[in-house]
Amino acid sequence: MEKGIPRSKAISHNRWLPFPTPSAYKYHKQIMTSVTTEIEIPSLFPADKVFKVFSDFDTIAPKINPDVFKSIETIEGNGGVGTIKVFTFGDAVPFTSGKYKVDAVDPSNCSYTYSFFEGDNLMGILDSITNQIKIVPSADGGSIFKQTIIYNCKGDEKPSEELLKIEKDIYEKTFKGIEAYGF
Q1: Are 100 and 84 in contact (CB under 8 A)?
Q2: DSSP secondary structure letter of residue 94
Q3: Eight-class DSSP state of 32
Q4: CA–CA separation, 107 vs 51, rounded Å?
Q5: How many angstroms separate the CA atoms of 90 and 104, rounded?
Q6: 119 Cβ contact list (under 8 Å, min separation 6)
Q7: Residues 6+ apart with CB under 8 A from 90
Q8: pLDDT in tens for each of the 183 residues of the chain?
Q9: Residue 93's CB: how many other CB atoms inside 10 A?
Q10: How far apart are CA 87 and CA 116, in angstroms?
């Protein structure tokens, strides 16, 4: 560093340096690791009808899979973007609860996105869990339920493969149950 240049100014201009500085190294250490799981489930029913039934997830899931979903309650909002809900998990799940926020709802594209931001389902190792759901038409007149789950890790520790498989199985079973319940 040149004499006469305050350290704060030198660091604020480090983006122009061709090598990493200590502050640049700190920045890179803060980048989150994420793990993604994808689920695809074919349905015989059209996308718009599946989305309509799926939109009642809060009511249906505890009825069809109470060992997993004890209750789902809205604590703030009207169900649209920004709504905050709490999952209370059943005995088949190693967690008690998770709080999530609705990030996006698009009925015309049959898509819904929500993110868990608080609860023991984050296991102390996750900042958040984002669920992106989209139901797309299939060539046979039915549809495909697509869910992408993104686990945003606080550090290098990630959810176990076993946990990811269990969660994927739970969502698949729940979707099939909702489909059977709704049609």
Answers
A1: yes
A2: S
A3: P
A4: 7
A5: 26
A6: 86, 87, 95, 96, 97, 98, 99
A7: 65, 66, 67, 68, 69, 70
A8: 444 444 444 333 444 444 444 444 444 445 579 999 999 999 999 999 999 998 999 999 999 999 999 999 999 999 999 999 999 999 998 999 999 999 999 999 999 999 999 999 999 999 999 999 999 999 999 999 999 999 999 988 999 999 999 999 999 999 999 988 877
A9: 19
A10: 9
- Name the burial class of residue 38, with classes exposed (0-12), middle (13-18) and buried (19+) by CB atoms within 10 angstroms of its CB: exposed
Q: Label residue 114 exposed, middle or buried (CB < 10 Å: 0-12, 13-18, 19+).
A: buried
φ and ψ at 81, to 5 degrees? -55, 135
Task: Determine the Cα–Cα distance for residues 89 and 106; give it in Å rounded to an integer.
Answer: 26
Strand partners, 37: 149
